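>> received
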Amino acid sequence: QHYKSITFIESPSMSATTYANKNATCVSMTSTSGDYKTGNGPTGTYLTKTGTTFAPNDWHNSNSIISSTATRQQGGSLEIRQAARQLRNDTDNKTNWGQNDNTTRLYDRMSDITAWKDKLEQTIADTNAEIAALTTHKERTETALTNMNTPFEVVHDNLATRSIRVSIDLVDDEVNQELNKEVEVINGIKEKLQQKVNEAFQQLCALQDAYNAMCDDLADKMHCLDVDQACHSLTNQSANIGFHAGANCIKEGIVMPDAWDGHSNYNTQRAVAEMKASTALREAINNMIEQTSNDLEAQRLRTEYAFRKRIHEVQMAKDELEWQQRNTKREIDVLSDDIRGLKQAITDKDKPLEVAETRSENRTYRPRVELCRDEPHDGIIAERNDLLNTVSTLIDQHNIAEDAHTQLKQTLNRLDEDWSIKSNSLELEERCMTKRQKLLLVSHNV
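>> returned
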């Protein structure tokens, strides 16, 4: 057992039992830090501690091992942190790209659904218009079977009707001249008309079946579009998301994209075929009516020709006005969007301008020689000037667009007024022709 001698210093933490013999060479002491022994030597009292001691090399080796172990573990921790960060970044990117890809797929799918929805809506509208057109032909044909009027009634009704034309359309034209000469009546062929009524009824049934199928398809498309729009709008911050059991299960009744596409294609093609047949039937009705017109006298033919010529002229004028109206309205809408875009563009320049001016202002507080006219200084000043020039250009263009918008609205008002006149005249001409169909035992417009 080794002992290390130290000079004894009396401490309050120690309690000592000193034997009465003052010539004793050893005193036993107890301390909170261990067991000690004291003794008297040539230089005074000394204290030794019992226990195992180590060599200096052991002490240095222990310190070296602890330090190297800490260094090695720190290096390992650094590698682990770098690997963890890389893994976190990679998984975050993969997750974000995966979500973005599916968001894009949903958008593309919505585009496909919207395309079919638009086509179905257009075909439904066309079918509905064709049903209305064929229904009108059928009703006119049925009316012609039960109604007969004398030429006197028709002629005077036509003259009275045309007398209420307004403005520039109130002209003494060829129709008026022929109406004043017309004195004949017409006989219709009811048997042929009845045949066309029956054919029109059957065709209307076929059109209605196609129409109903497309309406059902459209309703499904709308519902599907709502679902996909809701899915497309979902984000990680959405409140209505959660885990769902069986999310990857394939539901019963699911169809492939080709079958989905083929279903709508069949419905639209069927409707197109029925509309084509309906158009042919309406043309056949018109042809039959034209055959009955062969029995009309020469004067009536001249009057009918004058009416059709005038209706064509008015219709052409009205079509031209409608075309101009559509173009003008479209241009007004587009220009309005551009005006809103210009306003937004002007507003959007406020923040960049504030950023540039704030940067420029903040950099004026650089101390002493750091207040340098460096590249950022020149760049910020140039950016601010560019933004001011841009805003000025946008404001000028906005004013030009507003003036053009006002002129377009004035032109549209003139077009609407003239269109109303032409519509009134066309309505009157068609009303006359509707009355004149009584001569053919067919109430229809030619």
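>> Confidence is low (pLDDT under 50) at residues 1-34, 442-446.
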